[in-house]
Prior knowledge:
The protein is mostly beta strands. It has one helix and 49 strands.
Amino acid sequence: xxxxxxxxxxxxxxxxxxxxxxxxxxxxxxxxxxxxxxxxxxxxxxxxxxxxxxxxxxxxxxxxxxxxxxxxxxxxxxxxxxxxxxxxxxxxxxxxxxxxxxxxxxxxxxxxxxxxxxxxxxxxxxxxxxxxxxxxxxxxxxxxxxxxxxxxxxxxxxxxxxxxxxxxxxxxxxxxxxxxxxxxxxxxxxxxxxxxxxxxxxxxxxxxxxxxxxxxxxxxxxxxxxxxxxxxxxxxxxxxxxxxxxxxxxxxxxxxxxxxxxxxxxxxxxxxxxxxxxxxxxxxxxxxxxxxxxxxxxxxxxxxxxxxxxxxxxxxxxxxxxxxxxxxxxxxxxxxxxxxxxxxxxxxxxxxxxxxxxxxxxxxxxxxxxxxxxxxxxxxxxxxxxxxxxxxxxxxxxxxxxxxxxxxxxxxxxxxxxxxxxxxxxxxxxxxxxxxxxxxxxxxxxxxxxxxxxxxxxxxxxxxxxxxxxxxxxxxxxxxxxxxxxxxxxxxxxxxxxxxxxxxxxxxxxxxxxxxxxxxxxxxxxxxxxxxxxxxxxxxxxxxxxx
Length: 547
């Protein structure tokens, strides 16, 4: 049986792309084609304006699908030989030259999709499903067009719950539209005449095609936009998707605009896990054992050190980066690069890491019981042996650690605990329980000035919970979270990633989580600063601004 091939699209919170600005790429495994159709783009940077990769489909057929119910079902026998199928959702800013212009009477309710090879004929009908803005289905139409041809309606299309479904025996351009009203070039009654540069009053029109092409009308030289669009520089734009007007007029994105926020890829070379951020750089650990940094405002990643033995947690102070290794070491390196500094060695079962002031904190075992330990950082003259902040943990291994000015906090599989800093030198302070964490394990921990937040695995699901740092009952903020991984907070909101590939945000007071990003692989680490959320997923490290 041929495996199902996933196409990646970035579509957030169920919002279907409406037309402008954001370039969304669907991708599968690269392959060569022996098909009989023609392609405008080819592999790499295609004529359709997106970085398109192909999925090789043979006579056995295949189902190519992705998030938010995008789907192409090619039945067995539809193809006589292997063909590389390419699908891309087109950005308005980079429509290909061979795509016919959409008549101004139509208002886009989806991306325009390019299915390649164009003119590819199938021996059996191919079923296509594409998402659209969920309007009254009675107003919707699916249009198709051949390269350098004209748009025409697709018969027999079904519209249900934001998904348009139809069949075809050939590939071309497709889009879901709704009638925007009579905005023809000449209506004989003083209507909009964009092609002649006049409006109904005979004045010179300042609105360009960016107004009328999206269903807007030009009145007295000003662009009047339909619902869902805003007038920016006398053009109708979707501020949720337009890279030049993302979240507001004139707010430009370097890459893509998703739900009114700029999304940027900082690295796409290999799998990253733990993240940390300061005022100028993002730091992370790669699965290959390297510690990497990249400027938060752009630039290529820089490897600070490579070939570390299973690096895990990561933390920062003003001058150094710290991490633990699977062979029992806590080490650091200057942020600018340099020699490795050992903070502690021979730490059995080391897990969790936090740095505050002149000290680093972590969990480890002496062979019979776990403890929370501390040692001076590299910035404070590392070298003295570690001391215990809290012992008597028994077999409960610390998983995640956080620290504030008064206490250190940590999670185990069974609970959340704290201990005061500066306890007795002979074993430190006894752990104080702040409550049970629930589930089968804890993935991460974050604190603000008053509250601790963590993600908890449960059978088939997971939760995000909180409790006051002073103790008290725990509160469940979100349930049904498939493997919540990294977690972060800025005091106003809590952010987390899931194994299902979501980046989520929720006010600390509770409510309904909102989706910041939907990615093709499960998310891992996540951090925030004053304006931006950063996360790792699969082989990518990305950010979205504003958060």
